[in-house]
Design brief:
There is one protein chain. The protein is an alpha/beta fold and 350 residues long. It has 2 domains: 162 residues, Quinone Oxidoreductase, Chain A, domain 1 (Alpha-Beta Complex); 150 residues, 3-Layer(aba) Sandwich (Rossmann fold), CATH 3.40.50. The protein contains 9 helices and 16 strands. The strands form 3 sheets. Strands 3, 5, 6, 7, 8, 15 and 16 form a 7-stranded mixed sheet that branches. It has a 6-stranded parallel sheet with strand order 11-10-9-12-13-14, with helices on both faces. It has a 3-stranded antiparallel sheet with strand order 2-1-4, with no helix packed on it. Strand 12, helix 6 and strand 13 form a beta-alpha-beta unit. It is globular, with a radius of gyration of 21 Å. The two termini are 16 Å apart. InterPro entries: ADH-like_C, ADH_N_2, ER, GroES-like_sf, MDR_fam, NAD(P)-bd_dom_sf.
């Protein structure tokens, strides 16, 4: 019989309409036995250390008729998403007590994960901070790496535009493009983020979309010869403006559309004919399609981090009580870099 301890949890109380509010969530305390339940043959008990705040979580809050590889939340329910944890007990022969893992877990102090296929064992925890596996070495990094190199099919010297460029994915895509010798411009919503893009992350230029009354004109200013690659994170008016500024045979990788997630009626896109006229390839993709190549990703990206050739910015919120505000802040641009919630010190065992 294991020790029974308290377990703080973030619960979604209702399906969300419009922008989520802190009142849509509740931080509660339950109890959990620090032993796998009887009959859990392959389950894993983990102590969660870091949780990832990601825009896709807003999609899961709505009763939407969409296909999604992760189940929608059914309120009242403990949130779940990507996180980093330490294994306390394992029924999976590939994981043992003391191992560190990243993958889908609950927004709580302790979680029983019945499907260990959703977990990746961390083998390089002394090389980088464990929190990096919520982002640059986890789902975010895999998204940016394969989204850019595989979906965008970049070539040296091409003109690359990245929206939400200071966010978790955008900051990495811009640096990958620069390392290939591309000209890279990003957009963000504050002067602090613009300075970050140009001075720390190495973008050739950046602009504040909130200060532009005409996005079409702004893009013509930064891309007088047009755009070869657009890495799409926001959708809406930005996508519409990009379509009339793409070069022939340009590529648009559709990673996300954060500007649309809180709208009851999503905005339409009006310049679709340019896809035909400019022979543009528009492709959506899911990170799940590339997890079988995770070791390939690590071999490419981990040395860049260790050699300090790849910058990475985290925005750390402390404690589960700060979780709802941190998650909601994604949709108002409150975060600078990858938004993470620190649940417990990484050295903590129980």
């Amino acid at each position: 019989m294991g020790e029974v301890v308290s377990n703080r949890q973030v619960v979604l109380k209702n399906s969300v309409t419009g922008f989520p509010k802190e009142s849509d969530f509740e931080v509660t305390t339950s109890t959990i036995c620090l032993k796998l339940p009887e009959g859990s043959k392959k389950g894993v008990l983990v102590k969660n250390l870091y949780l990832s705040c990601d825009p896709y979580m807003r999609v899961l809050m709505t009763n939407a008729h969409l296909y999604f590889p992760i189940d929608f939340y059914t309120p009242p329910q403990v949130l779940y998403g990507y996180g980093v944890g330490r294994v306390l007990e394992s029924g999976d022969p590939k994981l043992k007590e003391g191992d560190f893992v990243w993958g889908i877990t609950g927004w709580e102090e302790y979680s029983v994960i019945e499907d260990p296929q959703k977990l990746f064992k961390i083998n390089h925890r002394h090389d980088v901070p464990l929190s990096y596996y919520t982002g640059i070495l986890g789902m975010t990094g895999v998204t940016a790496y394969f989204g850019f190199y595989e979906v965008c099919c970049p070539k040296e010297g091409e003109y690359v535009f990245v929206s939400a460029a200071s966010g978790a994915v955008g900051q990495l895509v811009g640096q990958f493009a620069k390392s290939l010798g591309c000209y890279v411009v990003g957009t963000a919503g504050t002067q602090q983020k613009i300075d970050l893009l140009k001075n720390k992350l190495g973008f050739d230029d950046a602009f504040n979309y909130k200060e532009e009354s005409d996005l079409n004109s702004a893009l013509k200013r930064y891309f007088p010869k047009g755009i070869d690659i657009y890495f799409e994170n926001v959708g809406g008016k930005m996508l519409d403006a990009v379509l009339v500024n793409m070069r022939e045979h340009g590529r648009i990788a559709v990673c996300g559309m954060i500007s649309q997630y809180n709208l009851e009626k999503p905005e339409g896109v009006h310049n679709l004919l340019n896809i035909v006229l400019q022979r543009i390839r528009v492709q959506g993709f899911e990170v799940f399609d590339y997890y079988h190549r995770y070791s390939e990703f690590l071999d490419a990206v981990l040395p860049l981090i260790q050699a300090r050739k790849l910058a990475y910015v985290e925005d750390m919120a402390e404690g589960l009580d700060a979780g709802p505000a941190a998650l909601i802040g994604l949709f108002s641009g409150h975060n600078v870099g990858k938004q993470v919630v620190a649940v417990a010190p990484q050295s903590s065992a129980v």
